[in-house]
Design goal:
Shape: globular
Strand content: 35-45%
Number of strands: 15
Structural class: alpha+beta
Helix content: 10-25%
Number of helices: 4
Radius of gyration: 19 Å
Order of helices and strands: EEEEEHHEEEEEEEEEEHH
Low-confidence stretches: 1-28
Largest sheet: 13 strands, mixed
């Protein structure tokens, strides 16, 4: 899909959620939405990619949200079903046939230079809080055209990975997907040096307030920790769920041994 030079006004439907069981993010100052295709691998020996669609919502108030469009839509349908009087089982049946997206999202807060990483593991929400670090960029001389925009190449390190990115000065937003930001233009494409992760921009639009994002999870049971701690918990959950259940107090997982699982964390911690 090509990015349209003329800004498209996106009217976002407001869906009421259940307090406590969903996080309702309201921003009357939301200004832009950038849509990215996110390609990732769970096994570096495989050639194919898994894929999700992520929205980057940029707010004039100095922060941005990066979250799965698929998960947000699925959660919104479930919350709307519950609001109509369905019980939890009925609402789950409504969304059973809908695609599943990734459950992590990022809140970048530029005013206090903080980043908050949220992920739902079992029935709790794990919130990792860390410093919003500016990647150390090196702008190199290469240029290319992406979706009609002249882009410049930069190389930098973020989240323990080296990234090769293409940004366009034609869109004066110093934002990008995930933890990538701080260049003199919007990042349209990013790929890590191992080739396991790619973000490709598909569209840019202007948001019309008021604007809501619904993200499900039991926010009454939010576990706060540093960013590295949340990433370690998520990695353990993906690779060894039995160990995770025991270490984090969810109880012992019963059943036969779990076959070997493959997972490559996007964020690398020591």
């Amino acid at each position: 899909m090509y990015i349209k030079r003329s800004i498209i006004i996106l009217i976002i439907a407001v869906i009421a959620g259940l307090k406590g069981y969903s996080q309702e993010i309201l921003s009357n100052e939301a200004s832009y939405r950038v849509e990215y295709s996110y390609y990732y691998k769970r096994d570096s020996t495989k050639t194919g990619y898994l894929m999700d669609t992520y929205f980057l919502d940029i707010c004039k108030s100095g922060h941005s949200f990066f979250y799965s469009r698929i998960t947000q839509y699925r959660d919104s349908v479930k919350q709307a079903s519950l609001a109509q009087g369905m019980d939890a089982y009925q609402a789950s049946e409504v969304i059973r046939s809908l695609p599943r997206g990734l459950v992590w999202y990022i809140d970048k807060r530029y005013a206090d230079r903080k980043v908050m990483y949220y992920t739902q593991l079992v029935w709790d929400v794990f919130r990792g809080i860390g410093e919003l670090e500016l990647p150390k960029w090196e702008i190199v001389g290469d240029t290319t055209i992406l979706n009609g925009f002249t882009c410049k190449k930069a190389i930098g390190v973020a989240g323990g990975r080296e990234w090769i990115v293409w940004y366009t000065p034609d869109i004066q937003l110093n934002e990008g997907p995930w933890l990538l930001w701080g260049l003199p233009g919007l990042i349209l494409k990013a790929e890590d040096s191992t080739g396991c992760f790619k973000f490709i921009c598909d569209n840019v639009g202007e948001l019309a307030p008021p604007y809501y994002v619904l993200l499900s999870g039991d926010y009454n049971n939010t576990r706060s920790m540093d960013l590295a701690g949340a990433v370690r918990a998520e990695t353990m959950y993906e690779l060894d769920p039995k160990k995770f259940m025991s270490v984090y107090g969810f109880g012992e997982m019963q059943g036969p041994p779990i076959p070997q699982r493959y997972y490559i964390p996007l964020y690398l911690v020591e």
